[in-house]
Amino acid sequence: MSAAPDTDILVLGAGPVGMTLALALAASRHRVTLVDAAPADAAAGDPRALALSHGARQLLETLEAWNARAATAIDHIHISQRDGFGRAVMTAADYQLPSLGYVMRYGDLAAALAERVARMPAISVLRQSRAVDWRADGAGVGVTLQQQGEVLRLGARLLVHAEGTPYDDPAVSVRDYRQHAVLAEVRTREPHGRQAWERFTADGPLALLPLEDGYAIVFTVPPAKADWLMGLDDEAFVAALQAQFGNRLTFTGAGPRARFPLALRLRQETVAQREVWVGNTAQTLHPVSGQGFNLGLRDAWELASLLASSPDPGVAATLQAYARGRRTDRQGSALFTDGIVRLFSNDIAPLRLARGLGLLALDLFPPARHFVAKRMIWGARAWP
């Protein structure tokens, strides 16, 4: 039984959300320890593409962790439906912004955050460690960790859960969309021109995000069709993608594919005695409109803002204030993405007509378009 030094805030999960929280607290009075089950270089080769809002860039720049060289800007977003009328276009110039958002590989963002974390003496990192038990009381939390065959006991005043999606937690409500996302990077004959596409089909939304010289795609389909897509060779996969997207672009090649099931997961209570849940541990959204990761970054930022000014980071009043403050953004983002999925993931003629009218209204009525765009950029509370 080995001993480990006490810390003020123990964060389970050293992914981008956990590291963002730690960096936002680095100048505070609190010592922060990050705990992660993976080795230090685990995220380096992760090819998943993240859609980062302009608000996320502002946050990361404040923390000096914005990886500008790895980011591809989105200046325009084109929204339409397959086999139906109506479309809407959002442009950065309408909001006096350099870009609406950015696309970056997960590994590149994680590397920039990890490099910044390594420079902060107030932040400790325990790699290849996982929490196997914890007990909270009025004074703090006792956490038992396993680290490469050793058992560590660590005391903290606050335990933050930021370790990823909870798949079997009874405290989390789940709405299964019966859809899978197939991910890949693809090439097109035409340059992307910094334009993202959100194309709604009967199977589900198909998103194309500009990334370097091509696109990162999120191809949403029923599970059986995902099985079929994953089994195709590259040429047949490109043909299937072309058929789903239509002829607005010409696809010429595709890289390796991955898939994951889609569901709305919401933790009803994001705080408990000296515990708080942020990011995907608190809510996991459908990837339509790219809201989930940006919501997690806002969780980390707002939690850090409250903890920095609290002498005791685990006091109940502070945690309850955090939960109240995040309610609008969490619920608004969940309702927004869930509503889009329910409205657009079907082929019922009356709804197809309603979708077309809605897209037409967004395009012709700027206040409605601006309402949607600003919340995509800064969240349900138009952060910051």
From TrEMBL:
Pathway(s) where this gene product acts? Cofactor biosynthesis; ubiquinone biosynthesis
Cofactors per UniProt? FAD
The UniProt keywords, alphabetically, are: FAD, Flavoprotein, Monooxygenase, Oxidoreductase
NCBIfam families the UniProt entry points to? Ubi-OHases
Q: Which residues form a coiled coil?
A: none
One Pfam family it belongs to: FAD_binding_3
Q: Which SUPFAM superfamilies match?
A: FAD/NAD(P)-binding domain
- What protein name does the entry list? 2-octaprenyl-6-methoxyphenol hydroxylase
Q: Which PANTHER family match?
A: 2-OCTAPRENYL-6-METHOXYPHENOL HYDROXYLASE (PTHR43876:SF8), UBIQUINONE BIOSYNTHESIS MONOOXYGENASE COQ6, MITOCHONDRIAL (PTHR43876)
**Residue ranges annotated for the FAD-binding domain, each copy included:** 6-327
Q: Which family does it belong to?
A: Belongs to the UbiH/COQ6 family.
> Highest taxon of the source?
Bacteria
